[in-house]
Structure prediction request, 750 residues.
Amino acid sequence: MSEPVDGDQSWFQRVESVFVEVCDLSGDERESRLDELCGGEAELRRSVLTLLSADDIGCPVLDPGAIAHLGGIEDESSDEIPETIGSFRIVRVLGEGGMGVVYEAIQQTPRRHIALKVIRHRAMHAQIRRRFEMEADILARLNHPGIATVYESGVAEDVRGATPYVAMELVDGVPITAYAREHCSGTDERVALLREVCRAVGYAHSVGVIHRDLKPSNILVDKRGRVKVLDFGIALDMQIEQRTQMTSEGQMLGTLQYMAPEQVDSRAGGSKTETDVYALGLVSYEVLTGESPVARHGSSMYELVRAIRDEDIGLLGTHSRALRGDLETILAKALEKDIDRRYADAGAFGEDLDRYLEHKPIEARRASTWYQLRKFSERNPALVGSFAAVMVVLLVAVVVISNALRVATRERRIAEHDQQVKEMVNGFMTEDLFQAADPSQGGDPQITLVDAMLRASEGVGERFGDAPEVEAEVRHLMGDQFDLMGRFPEALAHAKRSVELSESLGLPIDTIIMRRNLLCQVYSDLNEMDLALACVTETKRLAETRDGVSDEQRFWTMMEQASLLFHLDQVERSAEIFEEAVAFGSERLPDHDAYQGAVADLALVYTRLGRFEDAERMYAQSIAYSTEKHGADNSDTLVIRDNLGLLYLKMDRAEDAVTQLNEVLRDRIRVFGEEHSKTYITRSTLGRALMELGRYDEAEAQLLEAYEGIERFYGAAHRYTRFTMNHLHDLYTRMGRDDLAAPFAAQEDP
Prediction:
C-alpha cells in the first residue's frame, strides 16, 4: 500500500488528479471509477474522499477572496434574488457560498436592517440542513460583543417550499486586513485589533465552540474600529461532537489557505481549539505584514496542502525589524506545526498579545528572572537604578554579546568558536556582572546600573586576556552602553581599546569601521572636536579605500562625518554630506531605519540653514515612518519630535513649539524618567520657547532644572550646557535681572 511521504509533491498531484476525474460523477459510477484509479491504495482513496466530501456539501475548500489574492477568480451567482423570505424583505446579496446565501434584509418588527443567511434550495439535503440548524443553535448561544448577534432562526414557508434561515446582526464593516491597511498607522494598533479578535474567539472556545473557518473575510471591523467575528457555518460544538461524532471520517471543512496542518491530514486527529489558534496566527501574520504567508504557493491544491503540512511560516522579523522580538515569538508559537506546542486556545493567544502591549513578560518564551525584570524595567523606567536594572544588563549581555562575539577569526572553526563564546559569556555574567549584585558573593543587591557596569568593566582585560577578539567585542559593547548613559570618559576608554585590538588583530574591515565610528561619536560627545575630526577623517578614508566595507558602514561613516561638521558649525558642508548620505541610503538602503534617520538629521541641518519648509516636510516624513515602525515612544521617534519643536521655534511659531515640546517632555518622563540626559535637553528647548512667549516664570523653572541636569551629565564646557546657559542669560536679561544674568554671561555661541 502506498503512503504519502512528507514533502513528496507527486503525492498531492495524484490526489488532485483523481479528485478532478471523479468529482462530477455520482453514485456507483463514482465508486467504480475510484476503484479503478486508486486500486488498493487506501490512503489515496481516503484523501480523495476527504476532498469529495467537502465538495459535496459546498464547503469553501479555497477561499474566493484568497484565490483572488493568489490570481484566482470568484464565481458569479446564478440564483434569482427573491423579494421576500418569510417576513423579511430582501435588499441585496451580501455574500454566498456553495451551500448558502447571505442577504441584507429588512426585519419588520423591530424594524432594522439585518443579515439573513439561508440555504440554497439546490443544496437542501439532510446533512446540510442538520449542519445549518447546528450553526443556528451555536450562534444563539454565543453572546459576546465581538461575535455577530443572532436575532432569530427558523424556517420560512413559501411557494418554493421550506427555507431555513438565520437572522443576525448586519455588520457594516470591512475585512480586518483591509481595515488594518487603511486605518492602523502602527504595529501596536494592529496588535490591539488582533487582541480583540482573540478575545471574541476565546469566548467561543470557553463555551465549547470551535470556529474552524477563521479568515479575514469572516473577521470584519466596523467604522468605529469594533471587531465582529462572523460565519460559524462549519463550527464545531465540542460537546455535541464528542457525543455524536457527527463529522464524517476524513471530512475536510474550512478554507484551505487558512487551515492548520491537522485539518489537511486525515491522520492528525481533527480540529481542536488550537486549530483556530493557527488560523488566527495566519490572519495576524497578514494583518501585521500586509502579505499572505501562503501567497507564494499559487492556487494549486497540492502545493498548498504540501506547504501547510511541511513548510514553516516565515518569521515576522524577515519583513521588518520592528516585528522582531516578543511579537515574532508570539506569532511563532501560534503557528507551530505541532498542535501541542501552540497556545491552548484563542484566549491564551490574546493574553500574550495583552502582555506584549503592556510590556509584560510573555508566555511564549521561558520566563526567566532576567527576562521578567527587563520587561518590568520597560514599564517602570524610573526604577532603572535598582537591582532590576542590573538584571536588564545581564539579559542584554546574553543576547547582544552572544550574537556579536560570532565575529571571531575566519581560520577558527565555527563550532569551536560558538562553544568558546558560550563559555566566555557565561563566565562574564556569573563572575562579573552578576557578582556585583549577589550578596553571597560580596555584592550589593541595591547596586545601580552604572556601578554594576563599572565594577564588571574593570576586569574585562584580565577576563579575556587570552581571547583578544572577544575582549574587543565586549569593550565595544561596554563603550556603547557607557556612551548612552552619559559616562563619556568610561565610554572612551573602552571604545579606544576596542579599536586598538580590532586593528592589531586584523579583524574584518567592516568590524573595524563600525568600532571606529563609535569612537568618533564618543570624542564628539566629550567635546574633543579635534580628535573627533581626525578620527572620522581616517575612518572615511578606510571606508572609501578598503574592500569588504558594507553599504551600512559606509553610510554610517558619512553620517558621523556630517554630524561632526554640523557641531563644528560647518553647516553648509554638513548639509552636502547629509544630502549625499540620504541619496546613498535611498539607493542602497531604502528599507533601513538608518536611511530615515538621515532624512531627520538633514531636516535639522535645513533648520539651521533657514530652509524651514523643506525641514518641516522631512520631519513629517520621518515622524510618520518612525512612529509606524517603532512607536511614538521610541527614543529615535522622540528625538525627531524634539527637533520638530526646535524647528517651530526657529520659524517664530512659539505656541506650536511649546505644544510640541510639552508632549515630548511628557513622553520622555513617562518612558525614561526625570533623570535622563535627553529629558533635560527637551526641558532646555521648552524653556527657550516659553521665554519667547513671555512666560518667564515657567521658562525659568524649566531652564534651571535643565541646566543642572545637563551640566551633571555633560560637564560645564559641553555645547548642550552652553546652549542652556545662553538661554538663561537671555531670560534674566529680558526680566531686567542683570545680577542673575551675570553668571551665565560671556558664553560663545555654541
